[in-house]
């Protein structure tokens, strides 16, 4: 591995124009494909095999002409209007404003079913005139008639709030042009008068692409890189390579929308977030190692930056190519394995068989793979293009000490503190993370809905006005599909009435009524083979009690079937989302087990050790648990009032977080511990190897962690709830894993294990392939290699004379 990467890095540096030309062709090709093939992303978050999904498909079969054949894809929405306090939509200025909006909407060519664009007052009156006599003829009590009408009427009881159904002229919601949605919004705002307005539904779920988070993350990353290298040129290289990598990955993902409908609106943003963070970090590791190789080559450990730069200029191009090869061979090996851990963790999500989650994971994995390729091919080529000026453009004031020199660094000072009392630091770090993890026991998962959108957005406003005017359940309707099977007409009528009674009798249901049958519409006596029962629960979509109501109705289905011979199944947006949340909860533990096993095997191959993989996996578990605890405390429970709109955690965040954090955690494990093993393999004692490895890796890993934290934290500003919380959770996880686990828990454990950390059974060593991640095979290639100081910490003192902390 190391020798292969050495050759790649050296060739990329020396034959820069060839590599740059290939990358230019790739970028042009990806850009062209993206421009020609990109289609709108899907708004659907469905999973095959769930009861609610299968029921929805069954409704499509039995009611092919039904208005809501596809609750998640139909190009429809609703406009919610509300009169000021003390007024109503039936008279005065509010009535006139309603009429102004309707007249303006009638003129929009991209809207269809315009006969439904009528005042909620008129629509409500018509509904009363049509439904009341019909239901009274069926012998329904007046209270039931009133309840049924109230569950469907577009006008609230106080006449302040109204709902206007809107249909766009498009096959699905994803096909609605963004400019049509924008025009609709402008028309409503221009004509709303004194009304408060909001809109929601499939047609209005199109997210706006914004690069603000990426720009902020890049800006903070630039500052960290400048401090790390002390060079403006060197600071710009990781940013440039990361942007190229992310651009390539996102271009491929967007082009893939032409061949799959599993790519949803969150997929590109998540891929961008992950690709940007790892892209900068991977380039940082290789560039930092290249700087160390240059310094060692000119014996410039004690030189000032200006003197170093002059020395660098004296190195011939061939020797610089050799040093670039060494950097890629050593740090690149760690980059490849670190990237591989991220790929494994993300690709493993496809085992769960959730299409939209698989698409998100594979898109993120693609950007990570491209980040690795960019780091080991394009970056050295750009370095070769710049030549001796890679570390030029000194930043004022900033000093960037080289961790390879003989001066004690902050990293060495910190690891000596840990070395004095490793047991204390091990216990303290573990206890801290366990305590922070306690709130995770209250984790509640839910899919995103209008009720979880940011406050003040049209979707959230529409949701709140609907809840205020019509009750919480109006935002979470469910549909029961009743199938009669072989029952005769009389038995079907009885079964239909019993279905309504059973469902409405469930605690937490406000109303249940038959809204459609598939019988002959011209023959009221023909009940058909199935009926749809609209269910209005007492609770909103984000209320945990809505899930309990759904569970109870499903539990009563067996008794209903025994009693009538018919059957029912429940669907709707809320049941679909509840089923998805349950599926994700069910697969969470198996997925964690898969990830931990893969982590153990991969790290055992990398480090040829039993204990190192075990403590790495344990540390990963602690950092993830603490991240869940802090995320739940702040974002779900509103601890300390920091978050003014606490909501349930989005269902697929935990499993995505575990996959991503696993990869990032193993990144830091590989980068830190490979330097420890490198020292041990070259003859240092286990304790000194741990201290030396930490000294060499701590500065760069700290910079990498700060970059990742800044990139992820910048996404807290995003409008998308999932991305907002995911950004926070990832930033928190990186903080815990880098600074508490990898820089405290791991070295403390390594000191306690001492030589046992590297013990490896002989029989297992014969089975496990030997992988040269430390670059041992490159030692003979190092021109002008200096003293190894096999049993010394890098401040020049022999191990036997070393006293920790002095």
Report on the structure:
The protein is built from 25 helices and ten strands. The protein has 806 residues and is of the alpha+beta class. A four-stranded antiparallel β-sheet has the order 2-3-1-4, sandwiched between helices. Strands 7-8-6-9 form a four-stranded antiparallel β-sheet, with helices on both faces. The chain has a two-stranded parallel ribbon with strand order 5-10. α1 crosses α13. The longest helix is centred in the last third of the chain and has 35 residues. The C terminus is likely disordered.
Question: Which structural traits does this protein have?
Answer:
single chain, 806 residues, alpha+beta, Multidrug efflux transporter AcrB transmembrane fold, 3 domains, four-stranded antiparallel β-sheet, 10 strands, elongated, disordered C terminus
Blueprint (SSEs and pairs):
Elements: H1 2-14, H2 16-37, H3 51-62, E1 76-82, H4 92-106, E2 111-112, H5 120-137, H6 142-152, E3 161-168, H7 178-191, E4 196-200, H8 212-229, H9 232-255, H10 267-297, H11 305-313, H12 317-347, H13 355-386, H14 410-420, H15 422-437, E5 445-446, H16 458-470, E6 478-483, H17 489-504, E7 509-517, E8 530-537, H18 544-555, H19 557-564, E9 567-571, H20 573-607, H21 611-636, E10 649-650, H22 653-681, H23 686-714, H24 721-753, H25 762-767
Parallel strand pairs: 5-10
Antiparallel strand pairs: 1-3, 1-4, 2-3, 6-8, 6-9, 7-8
Helix pairs in contact: 1-2, 1-12, 1-13, 2-9, 2-13, 4-7, 5-6, 8-9, 8-10, 8-23, 9-10, 9-13, 10-12, 10-13, 10-23, 12-13, 12-20, 12-22, 14-23, 15-21, 15-24, 20-21, 20-22, 21-22, 21-24, 22-23, 22-24, 23-24
């Amino acid at each position: 591995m190391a020798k292969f990467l050495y050759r790649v890095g050296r060739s990329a540096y020396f034959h820069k124009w060839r590599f740059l030309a290939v990358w230019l062709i790739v970028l042009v090709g990806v850009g062209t494909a993206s421009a020609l093939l990109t289609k709108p992303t899907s708004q659907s978050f469905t999973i095959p095999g769930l009861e609610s999904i299968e029921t929805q498909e069954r409704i499509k079969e039995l009611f092919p002409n039904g208005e809501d054949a596809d609750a998640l894809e139909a190009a429809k929405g609703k406009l919610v209007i509300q009169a000021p306090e003390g007024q109503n939509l039936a008279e005065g200025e509010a009535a006139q404003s309603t009429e102004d909006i309707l007249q303006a909407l009638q003129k929009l060519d991209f809207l269809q079913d315009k006969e439904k664009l009528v005042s909620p007052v008129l629509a409500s009156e018509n509904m009363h005139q049509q439904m009341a006599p019909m239901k009274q003829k069926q012998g329904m009590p007046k209270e039931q008639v009133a309840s049924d009408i109230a569950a469907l009427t577009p006008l609230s009881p106080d006449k302040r709030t109204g709902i206007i159904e809107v249909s766009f002229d498009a096959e699905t919601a994803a096909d609605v042009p963004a400019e049509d949605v924008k025009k609709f919004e402008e028309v409503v705002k221009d004509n709303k008068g004194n009304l408060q307005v909001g809109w929601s539904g499939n047609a209005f779920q199109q997210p706006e692409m914004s690069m603000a988070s990426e720009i902020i993350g890049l800006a903070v990353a630039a500052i960290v890189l400048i401090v790390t290298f002390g060079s403006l040129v060197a600071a710009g290289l990781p940013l440039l390579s990361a942007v190229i990598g992310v651009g390539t990955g996102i271009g491929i993902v967007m082009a893939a929308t032409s061949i799959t409908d599993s790519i949803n609106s969150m997929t590109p943003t998540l891929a961008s977030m992950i690709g940007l963070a790892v892209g900068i970090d991977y380039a940082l590791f290789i560039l930092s190692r290249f700087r160390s190789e240059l310094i060692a080559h000119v014996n410039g450990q004690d030189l000032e930056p200006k003197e170093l730069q002059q020395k660098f200029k004296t190195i011939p191009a061939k020797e610089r190519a050799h040093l670039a090869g060494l950097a890629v061979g050593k740090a690149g090996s760690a980059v490849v394995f670190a990237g591989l851990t991220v790929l494994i963790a993300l690709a493993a999500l496809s085992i769960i068989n959730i299409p939209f989650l698989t698409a998100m994971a594979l898109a993120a994995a693609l950007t990570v793979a491209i980040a690795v390729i960019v780091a080991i091919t394009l970056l050295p080529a750009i370095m070769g293009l710049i030549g001796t000026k890679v570390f030029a453009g000194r930043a004022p004031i900033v000093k960037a000490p080289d961790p390879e020199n003989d001066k004690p660094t902050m990293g060495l000072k910190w690891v000596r503190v840990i070395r004095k009392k490793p047991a204390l630091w091990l216990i303290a770090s573990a206890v801290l993370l366990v305590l922070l993890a306690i709130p995770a026991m209250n984790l509640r998962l839910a899919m995103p809905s209008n009720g979880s959108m940011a406050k003040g957005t049209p979707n959230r406003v529409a949701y709140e006005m609907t809840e205020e005017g019509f009750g919480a359940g109006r935002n979470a309707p469910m549909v029961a599909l009743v199938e009669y099977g072989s029952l005769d007409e009389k038995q079907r009528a009885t079964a239909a009435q019993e279905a309504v009674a059973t469902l409405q009798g469930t605690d937490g249901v406000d109303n249940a009524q038959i809204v459609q049958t598939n019988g002959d519409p011209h023959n009221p006596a023909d009940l058909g083979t199935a009926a749809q029962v609209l269910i209005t629960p007492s609770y909103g979509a984000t209320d945990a009690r809505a899930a309990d109501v759904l569970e109870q109705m499903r539990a009563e289905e067996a008794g209903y079937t025994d009693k009538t011979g018919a059957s029912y199944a429940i669907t709707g947006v809320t049941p679909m989302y509840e089923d998805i949340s349950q599926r994700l909860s069910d697969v969470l533990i198996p997925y964690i087990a898969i990830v931990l096993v893969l982590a153990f095997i991969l790290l055992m191959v990398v480090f040829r050790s039993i204990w190192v993989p075990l403590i790495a996996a344990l540390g990963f578990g602690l950092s993830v648990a603490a991240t869940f605890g802090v995320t739940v405390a702040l974002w779900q429970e509103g601890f300390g009032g920091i978050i003014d709109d606490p909501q349930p955690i989005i269902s697929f965040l935990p499993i995505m977080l575990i996959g991503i954090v696993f990869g990032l955690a193993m990144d830091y494990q590989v980068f830190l511990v490979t330097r420890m093993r490198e020292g041990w393999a070259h003859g240092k004692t286990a304790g000194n190897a741990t201290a030396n490895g930490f000294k060499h890796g701590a500065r760069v890993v700290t910079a990498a962690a700060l970059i990742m934290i800044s990139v992820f934290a910048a996404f807290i500003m995003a409008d998308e709830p999932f991305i907002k919380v995911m950004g926070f959770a990832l930033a928190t996880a990186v903080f815990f894993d880098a600074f508490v686990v990898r820089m405290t828990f791991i070295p403390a454990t390594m000191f306690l294990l001492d030589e046992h950390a590297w013990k490896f059974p002989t029989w297992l060593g014969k089975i496990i392939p030997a992988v040269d991640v430390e670059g041992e095979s490159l030692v003979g290639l190092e021109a002008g290699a200096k003293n190894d100081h096999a049993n010394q910490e890098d401040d020049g003192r022999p191990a036997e004379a070393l006293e920790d902390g002095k």
